[in-house]
Amino acid sequence: MIYHRRPSWIMKENTVTDEAVFLNRRQIMAGMGAGAGLALLGTGAGAAMTPESPFSPRPGLNGAFANAGRAVTAESITSKYNNFYEFGSSKRISKEAQKLNTDDWVIEVGGMVNKPFRIGIEDLLKKTGTEERIYRHRCVEAWSMVVPWIGFPMRKLVDLAQPTSGAKYIVFETFMDTKVAKEQKASWYPWPYREGYTLAEAQNDLAFMVVGAYGKVLHKQFGAPLRVHMPWKYGFKSIKSIVKVSFTNKRPKGFWESLQNKEYGFWANVNPEYDHPRWSQATEKPLDSDERVPTLLYNGYAEQVAGLYAGNDQGRINWF
After folding, report:
1. Percent of the chain with pLDDT strictly greater than 90
2. Using H for helix, E for strand and C for coil, what is the string for the chain?
3. 276 bridge partner residues
4. Domain total of the chain
5. Residue 1 lies in a domain
6. Quick check: is 141 in a domain?
7. Closest to 115 in 3D by CA, of 249, 247, 208
8. CATH number at residue 77
9. Backbone angles phi, psi at 173, to 5 degrees
10. Could you tell me the pTM of the whole model?
11. Contact predicate 77/45, CB 8 Å
12. Which carries the bigger pLDDT value, residue 56 or residue 309?
């Protein structure tokens, strides 16, 4: 994607990490290993960047998504502050999440497709390839961060699945294993975690399937080995540890929407004008700052996604 004018989400240069510093770190990581594909990630939660487990070579940084308007949040912060309710309601679940076994991970693709299939994560990446993008992340709880994700456009997954002409939505489902994820024993939650989007949203350039971050295979607390990142939506829409993808003509109901649809809706687009029923969405607190900053419509990505919701005001509202 090439922008012919300055995107609205680009901020002043003095608020952004120096490009030479960031690219130098990427170049160092790219030269640390030989071979291709995924290297195994060590189990240390919140580990610093090391040569043990980079992508080799590190995927190229997509220039259209090389600047999120804010400095990248340190991995030492983001890897220790996570929502992953399968492992507990605390943000400090990184150690508990290491119980998840991501070896030989297989994703099932079905529903309204020409031919259902199962595919291992390694084979999936051989078909899609990978790239790096720097994205904002905005939680519905009003905190935010910026992460250099590695993955592939969601539209590549849609193309691979070949949905039938009647399909209108894509639905993702996470793993279900009460032996390793203790919170999945809680009967009041609608396990397993599910989330869905319209096919138009799934095929937008911003929609991203994530398999790595900070130059390495995805930490388990980030949602290894495969998660979604929809940067213009609140974070609960970005489902983790995906085992199933399906296509349907009926609008799906997500995990949190099933629990409380007046607080967590299907669209869940970031919008500072519409408050959560229990708190304001006008501002947010970056994880690496003591100060709150204004929240932008669609998390600053209005230029790329506003057209998806033209004539549909509910597309901008979080709760319906």
Report:
1. 77
2. CCCCCCCCCCCCHHHCCCHHHHHHHHHHHHCCCCCCCCCCCCCCCCCCCCCCCECCCCCCECHHHCCCCCCCCCHHHHCCCCCCHHHCCCCCCHHHHCCCCCCCCEEEEEECECCCEEEEHHHHHHHHCCEEEEEEEECCCCEEEEEEEEEEEHHHHHHHHCECCCCCEEEEEECCCCCCCHHHHCCCCCCCCEEEEEHHHHCCCCCEEEEEECCEECCHHHCCCCEEECCCECHHHCCCCEEEEEEECCCCCCHHHHHCCCCCCCCCECCCCCCECCECCCEEEECCCCCCEECCHHHHCHHHHHHHHCCCHHHHCCCC
3. 279
4. 1
5. no
6. yes
7. 247
8. 3.90.420.10
9. -135, 140
10. 0.84
11. no
12. 309
Residue where the block lists tokens 């030269």:
31
Residue-level pLDDT at 31: 34
Query: Per the domain annotation, does 153 fall within a domain?
Result: yes
What is the residue range of 161's domain? Answer: 13-316
Encode pLDDT of 248-274 as tens digits.
999 999 999 999 998 999 999 999 999
In a domain, 275, yes or no: yes
Cα separation, 74 vs 62, whole angstroms: 20
Residues β-bridged to residue 279: 276
Does residue 272 contact residue 265 with C-beta atoms inside 8 Å? no
| pLDDT for the residue numbered 313 | 62
pLDDT mean over 209-220: 96
Instruction: Give which of 72, 148, 138 is closest to 293, Cα–Cα.
Output: 138
Instruction: Quote the CA–CA distance of 35 and 33 in Å, as a whole number.
Output: 7
Q: Which of 317, 193, 170, 177 is nearest to 256 (CA)?
A: 193
Query: 283-286 and 293-294: which strand pairing?
Result: antiparallel
pLDDT of 10-68, one tens digit each? Answer: 333 334 444 344 444 444 333 333 233 443 233 333 333 333 445 767 899 999 999 99
207: Cα separation from own chain's centroid = 8
